[in-house]
């Protein structure tokens, strides 16, 4: 749990903003974490991943997979043969997101309940 600090120096504030910006660049957006979750659930081929993520287009999925590979979260393996099979898998580095995902799952569920309660 992050302890709330009332008075940050400008340098500390800038450092935190930079860190959050770096994190959002690597895993932010509508699809990246969903792709990671789909891979965690055992989907490894492009079409499996696309079917697991409602609403993602093939073009966007291809782009997100490239970004995640460049950032070290996934590994792409091409199996030559007939037919050629391309598989994606999470790298050990992706495990560094476990606490982030757990926190997002919990917060997302609580937020959904909060919104539902406000609509009653």
TrEMBL record:
What positions does the domain HTH hxlR-type occupy? Answer: 13-116
Q: Which SUPFAM superfamilies match?
A: Winged helix' DNA-binding domain (SSF46785)
Supply one GO molecular-function term.
DNA binding
In which domain of life is the source organism classified?
Bacteria
Q: Return the Gene3D superfamilies for the record.
A: Winged helix-like DNA-binding domain superfamily/Winged helix DNA-binding domain
Q: Per the record's keyword annotation, is Transcription included, yes or no? A: yes
The record's listing under InterPro entries reads: HTH_HxlR, WH-like_DNA-bd_sf, WH_DNA-bd_sf
Q: Which UniProt keywords apply?
A: DNA-binding, Transcription, Transcription regulation
- PANTHER family listed in its UniProt record: TRANSCRIPTIONAL REGULATOR, MARR FAMILY
User: What protein is this chain from?
Assistant: DNA-binding HxlR family transcriptional regulator
**Native source species:** Mucilaginibacter auburnensis
